[in-house]
Amino acid sequence: MLDQVRLAGYCVREEWISAVAVMLMNHLRSHTLPELVEKLSDDVKGKEESSFWLHIVDLAISFDKKMHSLSSKSIGPLASKVELDFFDEDAAGLESVIKCVTVLGERKEWLDLWSQLELVDAQRKLNRELQEERAWSHYNPSDVVSSAVQRTSFEQEDYRHPQGAEAIMLRMWTLINRCRSLPREDWKLEFIRNVGSPFVKDFLGTLLQRCQEAEATTALSEEGAVVKVVSCINASCYCEHKLLEWSEDVFFLDLRRLQISLADNQCNSKISGVKVLQSGESLVSVQGCVFDEELSCLVQFKNEWLQKVVSATIRAFDACCQDYQRNKKRWQEYKHSLDIVDTTVSSSFIDALAMLQLRVRMLSSCLGGVIFVDFWRGLALGLDQFFLNSVILGGARFSELGSTQLACDIHALFQIFR
Length: 418
Hints:
Mean pLDDT: 82
Radius of gyration: 31 Å
Low-confidence stretches: 77-96, 141-156, 269-285
Structural class: mainly alpha
Strand content: under 5%
Shape: elongated
Oligomer: single chain
Order of helices and strands: HHHHHHHHHHHHHHHHH
Helix content: over 70%
């Protein structure tokens, strides 16, 4: 009857949706959630109660989506312009009323508990996937990954990450999507803070364990151990890339603006930064991102273990150069005519060059393109220090012939990096 009267800005369907949503929210507030919180207070990892809580969240999100779809049909195709304008103005208010997941964010302890349950569930599923050895294998274009999604050529060339790296980012993306239905931005930010950093740090713990096992076995002197560490470095590099990619999304930029505003408010800063962020200026002015803590951990892990791979390569090179370093008298050899000098590589230097060439080739095929550049630079710096300290400043005196021989050896070393 009210629809036939065509009252502007009023619809029986919308009122019914709001009434049902409020009734459901009151029941969750008064009975369901408090009882679950009491049961979960003793054991957060209780499987039955945790599953029931997460199932309630699934139902609430599904209910909100259906009610939102139903409310969008409240204005028919024959609605007047006045009705459409009123609906647009009131849409935000209606949307917040019909969201049952609002109950989960009204109390901070409930929001924290929800995020913790989601985190534990995601970690359990991820650990199950990472226990399989194929999760650490490098991607082969001829293989079909479990997700049936082929990597792009850009990702294959630049990161060469194992399948486990994709698994963690997929799980983390699913975790973040769980909070998108919350009506308030500060609740979303709190949820992401609760799940993002612990989830990444847990994965880094797995990477660290694998690297330490490889290092303890052979001190990274064997190819198998180096490949195992390289796989973990590639995984951290890929995760870093994905987080930076996500941070450019408007959703995360808005959360970063809110994060900066909250930080400024807590510090009681009188700088007009909060006003600037609220004035609707370009998002480009926002510095950093929501995942700064996660990115810092990933970068630290990557740099630390990449340096260990560089150090292991230098140690292996040094071990092959013992005779080359001890024989200092050859640098003082003298010949009257340099025209007949045989400028071939020193015989005691050939094994070291062969070892280094094999190691660089192996790492160039295993390391991602971006991270291999960092390895190359670190290795070049280490070799420079090696020649400076062990040969040039090692107490030897150089004749003209010895200088020519050293130049020949260094030229041969340069060929490996070409």
